[in-house]
Design goal:
The chain has 182 residues and is of the alpha+beta class. It folds into two domains: 32 residues; 127 residues, Immunoglobulin-like (Sandwich). It is 23% helix and 34% strand. It has two helices and twelve strands; from the N terminus they run αβαβββββββββββ. Strands 1-10-7-4-5 form a five-stranded mixed β-sheet, covered by helices on one side. Strand 4 and strand 5 form a beta hairpin. The N and C termini lie far apart (83 Å). Bound molecules: copper (II) ion (CU). Copper (II) ion binds next to loops.
């Protein structure tokens, strides 16, 4: 009886590999190389990649930019920030969003500035009507990420942190109101 624990008898390693097996091994080898190459190609030619510009910035410098931005911005009666121009700043910190709630308008290209004042956070924005539709960006301290963004649909958008950042992580929520015209 053959045992799975013992090698088969005779000179089994000297037998040539079945031709079909060689062909399939060859095909899977070629396929592995193709998809491995595609990983690299997709980051170069795929249009799913995050866009925008990144800058080196210290948390103190970013806080200053944030202060200048909020000083120039106005506020609605409900306490929503109204940016003075096309630049919109968010500063993530344990455990809230500076710069939110904010009111923006559709059909206008904004430059969304993101950075963290302490640890790594995640910027996840989702329309209230379709919470499964979302965009996600990583926010790192020391880096400012400037993302061009335009809203097609008015409505309430929820801003949540999607990178675990400590005990208050689950409460880290902000709001973006988008209207047809400001
Ligand atoms: Cu978090």
């Amino acid at each position: 009886m053959t045992s799975p624990m013992k090698p088969p008898e005779g000179n089994w390693w000297g037998q040539s590999v079945n031709r079909r097996e060689s062909i399939w091994l060859g095909l899977s080898g070629i396929w592995s190389i193709l998809i491995f190459g595609w990983m690299s190609g997709y980051t170069r030619f795929g249009d799913q990649n995050p866009i925008g510009e990144t800058l080196k910035v210290s948390p103190e410098e970013y806080q200053e930019k944030m202060n200048d931005y909020t000083d120039e911005a106005s506020e609605t009666e409900e306490g929503l920030l109204v940016p003075s121009g096309d630049d919109v700043y968010f500063a993530a910190q344990q455990w809230y969003w500076q710069g939110a709630p904010v009111i923006l308008e559709t059909g206008r290209e904004y430059n969304i500035h993101l950075s963290s004042l302490d640890v790594q956070h995640g910027f996840s924005m989702r329309p209230e009507q379709a919470l499964s539709k979302q965009i996600n960006f990583q926010i790192l301290p020391e880096y400012e990420w400037i993302l061009p963004m335009e809203f097609d649909e008015p409505g309430t958008y929820h801003l949540i942190c999607n990178e675990f950042c400590g005990v208050g992580h689950r409460t880290m929520h902000g709001r973006v109101e988008v209207v047809e015209e400001l």
